[in-house]
Amino acid sequence: MDRLNYEVLERSGYAGYVLRDAPIRVLQFGEGNFMRAFVDYFFDVSNEKAGWNGKVALVQPIAQGLTKLINEQDGLYTLYLRGSENGQKVDEKRVISSCACCLNPYESADYDRIMSIAESDDLDIIASNTTEAGIAYDPACKFEDRPAASFPGKLTQVLHRRFKAGKGGIVVLSCELIDNNGKELLRCVNQYIDQWALGEDFKNWINRDNIFCSTLVDRIVPGRIRDPKEVEALEQANGYHDELIDVGEIFGVWIIEGPDGLEDRLPFKKAGVNVHVVPDVMPYKHRKVRILNGAHTGFVLGAYLAGQDIVRDCMHNETIAGFMNKMLYDEVIPTLDLDKDDLMNFAAAVKDRFNNPFVNHELMSISLNSTSKWKARNMPSFLRYIEINGKLPACLTMSLAAYIAFYSSDIQELTDAGLVCKRPAGNTYTVSDDRWALEFFNSHKSDDEQTLVRAVLGNRQMWDRDLNEIDGLTDAVTADLKKIREEGAEAAYRSVL
User: Which of 38, 168, 387, 441 has a CA that sits 20 to 30 A from residue 275's CA?
Assistant: First the structure.
C-alpha cells in the first residue's frame, strides 16, 4: 500500500478538507504526537473555517526525531479524535494538512532554512512544546553554535536573525507543562541576550515588539494506535499507509494569556475552535487542576478499594459517579473564581472525558504519588470550602480518608518497588510514592484508626501544616476511615450522598 502524500491522498478519494499550498506563518518547535494532535489541528481547522491560509514549519527540537517520516508524507498525517460527547461515542477522522515540512536544525541545510523562515514577512507565530525540561537556561550554549543546544538558545538565535532582517515582532505560544511557561521562556531569552552581548536594541525589540504568551493546553493524546490489526483495518479503509497516525481525545481546549487585540491577530476565534485569549491563564489552570485532576485524585483511591480498575467503569457506577459529581459541584466549583457557567460546563465535560470508550485509564496509574497530588489538587478546594462555609466538605473529607485507607490497607511489606498492600478483594497492589511517605505509612501499619489519622494529618512534610488543627477534621476522617474499612469504600462513598 502506498505511503500517504498529496498524490496518494487524492487517489484514495478522501473527501475532507485539504490545503496543499500556503505561506509558512508558524515556526513550531516540537513535532511529536501532542503538538500534531493539538496545535496543528487548531491551525488546520483555522485554514478551513477562517480562511487563514497558513502553514506550519515543524522544527525537530533534538537531534533524533520525526523529520524524515514527516517530509516523506509531505507533512500529511491522519488524526483520530476519539471519546464521548454528551454521552455519545465519537470517533472523528481528519487528515491534517497544515504542516508544510519538518526541519532538523542539526542538519546544516535545515538550520539555514529555519533562519530563512525567521526573516520571512509571512512568519507571525512561534509555537513550542519541548517538554517540561525544554525551557531551561544552559550557560554552555554559544551564539555561534549551529544550533544552540537549549530551546531558549535556539529561539534567541531565530529571533536575532529576524531582528537583524528588520522584521516585526511575532507571537510566541509556549505549550510546555510548567507554570508561567511564556514568562519563563522570555526570562531565558533575556539571559542569552545578556550572556551573548547581543545589545540593548535587540533586547528592547524582544521585550517590546514580541508577545510571549503563557498558555494552558488540555487534551489527552495517547498517540499511536497500538493494535496492528486496527491499524491495518484503518489503512484498508483509508486506501493509504500512514506512519504518522495520531490519536487524541475529542475534548481539547487551549487557553492563551495575552493582551487586548491578540484574539483578533490569531485565527482561532474566527474559526470557532475552543481556543481562548485571556488576561491571566492561572484561573484556568486552577480550573483544570482542581476539577479534572482533583476529580481523579478525589475518587480513584476509594474506587480501587471498592473493586474498580479503570476510570470508565467508575462512571457507570452510580455511587462512585455520584460521589464525584457531588464533590465537584457542591465542594470544588464554589471555591473557584471563574464564571460559574464556565465551571459547570467544564465539569460536565469531565464525566464524558472519563467515560472515553477508547481509553482504558487504570486507577493504579492515577494513584502514583497521591500524597503530593492530594495536596496540590484537592487541599486548596478543601481549605477554601472550610473558609467559605465554616464546616468540613463531606466528599473531600472522605477522599482524604480514602487516601489513608489506600496507603494502609493490610500492609504486607515495603519493597524496592513500593509499599505492598492487600485489597479487600484479596489481591495485592503496590503503592508508589516518595520513599519517605511509604516509610511513614509502613512505620504506622500497626496503629489503630485514630492514631493513624492523627499521625497522617499531623505530618507537616505531607501538608506543610498540622491538619489536626482544623476543627473536627481528626474525628471526621477517623470515622470515615473506620467506615471504609468496616463497610467498604463504596458504602462509605454512598454515606455522603
Answer: 168
Q: Is the peptide bond prior to 147 cis by the omega test (within 30 degrees of 0)? A: yes
* 444 pLDDT tier (thresholds 50, 70, 90): very high
Residues 6+ apart with CB under 8 A from 75: 55, 58, 97, 98, 99, 100, 101, 102
What's the CA angle centered on 97, arms 91 and 98, to 5 degrees? Answer: 110
- The Cα 479–Cα 476 span in angstroms is 5
Torsion 118-177-314-294 (CA) sign:
negative
Three-state DSSP at 54 gives: coil
pLDDT of 35 above 90: yes
C-beta separation of 2 from 241 below 8 A: yes
Grid coordinates representing 91?
470517533
Give the separation between CA 300 and CA 431, rounded to whole angstroms: 13
Cell match 474559526: residue? 271
φ, ψ of residue 433 in degrees (nearest 5): -165, 180
Give the confidence band of 201 by pLDDT, cuts at 50, 70, 90: very high
Kindly tell me the number of DSSP H helices and DSSP E strands found in the chain. 25, 14
Q: What is the DSSP string of 320-376?
A: HHHHHHHIIIIIIGGG--S-HHHHHHHHHHHHHHHT-TT---BHHHHTTTHHHHIII
Selection from 417, 414, 416, 397 nearest residue 405 by Cα: 397
Half-sphere exposure of 391 (CA within 13 A, CB side): 6
Interatomic CA distance for residues 59 and 67, integer angstroms: 8
Which distant-in-sequence residues (6+ apart) come within 8 Å of 89 by Cβ?
357
State yes or no: pLDDT of 452 exceeds 80. Answer: yes
What is the pTM for the complete model shown? Answer: 0.92
- Helix (H), strand (E), coil (C) string for 244-273: CCEEEECCCEEEEECCCCHHHHCCHHHHCC
Which residue, 482, 491, 5, is CA-closest to 241? 5
d(C-alpha 289, C-alpha 99), whole Å: 31
Q: DSSP alpha helices (H): ranges in 51-180?
A: 67-72, 108-118, 151-164
Find cell 554559544 and name the residue. Answer: 142
Q: Does residue 133 register a pLDDT over 90? A: no
The pLDDT of residue 226 is 84
Domains of the chain (ranges; CATH) run 6-279 (3.40.50.720), 283-495 (1.10.1040.10)
